[in-house]
Amino acid sequence: MRGHNQSDTAKLAWLGRRVGFGLAPGDMARRTEVGLAAVVQQWTTPADPPAPEGPFRSIAATRDPRGSNRTTANRVMVADWLDYYRTTERPLDGFMHLFWHDHFAVSNVFVPVFGYVARHLEVLRVHAMGNYGDLLRAVSTDPAMLHFLDGVTSTGAAPNENFARELMELYSLGLGPFDEADVVAAATALTGWVVNRGTGQSRFNPARHDPTPQTLVGVEGVNDVDSVIDAVLNHPACPVYIAGKVARAILGGEPDAATVADLAAVFADNDLEIAPLVRATLEIALEGGVTPEPLGPAAWVVTALKVTGGTIDPARLITGLRAGGQVPGTPPNVGGYPPPAAWLSASAHASRLRLASFIVGGLDAAADVVAEAASGEFAALAVRFGLLGGFAPSTQAAMRDLLADVGPQGGRAVLVLALTAPEVVVV
Fold this sequence. Notes:
The chain is mainly α. It has helices at 6-19, 27-34, 36-43, 57-60, 67-87, 91-104, 114-127, 132-140, 143-148, 162-169, 180-189, 225-233, 237-251, 257-269, 274-286, 297-308, 314-324, 346-361, 368-374, 379-384, 393-406, 411-419, 422-425; strands spanning 193-196, 201-204, 214-216, 219-222.
């Protein structure tokens, strides 16, 4: 890193830790050589053609598992899912994929066919840094969402309001810009979509649709999916709402209204393209406009696997993530996962200790990361973690005390402690 701007080096470390699922060996050297501006440009320029196939498409194509086989399939999918985050050369795409998973919060518990969930996750992956309008349209009629929010039961004679309400409240506008009449109007216009269980494809059935023109958030003539989506996307609240959510995810805390307004303007001016919004948000972050927050269990465990080079059994992975409160694929409710403060609870800390023990326990005793932990001089270990200023004095004291108790063979125990240290968890 000699000859490079130290401030940029620190920003690269933050970028990797906050939105890049941690740092693998060699990441910092490669990114420092390229330079901060080039890394941000690379990460926020959508892949063309779309990103290579992720872990979901092949799962979606397999025969639907049942009972205990579905449990096993879910374990494998979550392990492959997080391994995609660990190995991708476009980690910001992964960060945004997890963001959109939380945003739409489809749970496989309420979707009868496992492959539908995998296909939904693939839609999120392909559109993660694309156009929000394209993403919202694709999600609105994908089989998983049609089952999750009861679109398959919604008919012209009996419109189901669940998706219509969440489309506006959670996915596009937030509370305030719509009323109950708008929910009824959207629900009516969205009727007629079904899923063919044989093909696994969604399709429009005119016989189940009410084509009567509706007025939705002030827009007249709304009578199908496209016109519903157009109405909410063109509402001035939409770019503000989405920009605010992206800002909270990247900047942390509650960004002020002026910051959100500026980001919303970027989003709107770019026709709701996600990449320019993310780039503008990162520019604010890299100038210091960040509130440190704890990594969620999924992001933390990917970080731990990437930094150590370790592995973990899928069953243990699921058990640990469930104890921590965030199993990918099963958000607890339609509003998504708990807010970041939840990841500082005693149960979340206990789950991190357990997961760290499993990961570190599988490492070779001669592994470099174990040797660094056992050395008693923790500078190299801190750099590996992206902590350019070193571990906090209290963490170093605790690690030295632990080594004094267990001796040179205590490298694994010290590494567990390091992985769960506050300065590693909170970024």
